[in-house]
Amino acid sequence: MRCPGPLIFSAGLLPIGLHLAHKAQSPLDGPVLTVVALLGVVLILQRNQYTAVMENLQRRVESETLLEEQQAIFQSTSQGIALVRGSHIVKCNQRLGEMLGHRLRDIYALGFAEHFIDRAEFDRAVAESQDAFSRHRNYHGMARLRRADGGEFRAELFLATECAARTPGAAFG
Predict the structure, then answer these.
(1) How far, in Å, CA of 111 to CA of 19, rounded?
(2) What pLDDT score does 103 carry?
(3) Closest Cα to residue 145, out of 171, 169, 163, 172?
(4) Angle at CA 13, nearest 5°, toward 10 and 16?
(5) Which of 85, 106, 121, 125 could form a disulfide with 116 if both were Cys (CB 3.0 to 4.6 A apart)?
């Protein structure tokens, strides 16, 4: 959505300024020409800034809309989903909290390995996923996880190699 007003106006000032410079007859013509030229430059700069701000605003609105759509999908799925960075879950959906029997803030506070039934199960899942990534394959496996009440359940873990390559974290579901 472009507004041609200031640009056309400032472009129209240029020929006027050139005409005044060519026909300069009095000592006032120089200052008048300077003011007209500066006004033209200011209007061109203002228009360029306005265009850049409006394009950035449009991109931001589009990004926020996309994020809202992704968040709706993330929260409404029947699967537990987590984003893992380093040794901690940094984001997960409510369904994973229900599966683990923890509040989300408790899930974030615990180390990722603490959600597995034992350290050996965690180490096995990590080794298998790293092996898959080294062969440029997606990781898909099963692991036993522990609920807050001490019970356990089998979880299907999946991670795409694109996710592993793009971020220093992993997503599992």
Answers:
(1) 74
(2) 94
(3) 172
(4) 170
(5) 121
- The closest of 141, 128, 139, 131 to 161, measured between CA atoms, is 139
Burial 117-153 (b: 16+ CB within 10 A, else e): beeebbeebbebbeebbeeeeebeeebebbeeeeeee
Q: How far is it, in rounded angstroms, from Cα 25 to Cα 19?
A: 12
* Residue 6 pLDDT class (50, 70, 90 cuts): very low
Rounded distance, CA 20 to CA 32, Å? 8
* CB-facing half-sphere around the CA of 93: CA atoms within 13 A: 16
- Taking the C-alpha atoms of residue 1 and residue 7, their distance in angstroms, rounded to an integer, is 14
Report the CATH fold assignment for 77-172. Beta-Lactamase (3.30.450)
User: What is the rounded distance in angstroms from the CA atom of residue 148 to the CA atom of residue 107?
Assistant: 10
The pTM score is 0.58
Residue 60: Cβ within 10 Å count = 10
| Over residues 110-125, mean pLDDT | 93
The rounded distance, in Å, linking the Cα atoms of 97 and 110 is: 12
Q: What are the Cα distances from residue 70, in Å, to 56, 60, 67, 75?
A: 21, 15, 5, 9
Helix, strand, or coil (residue 161): helix
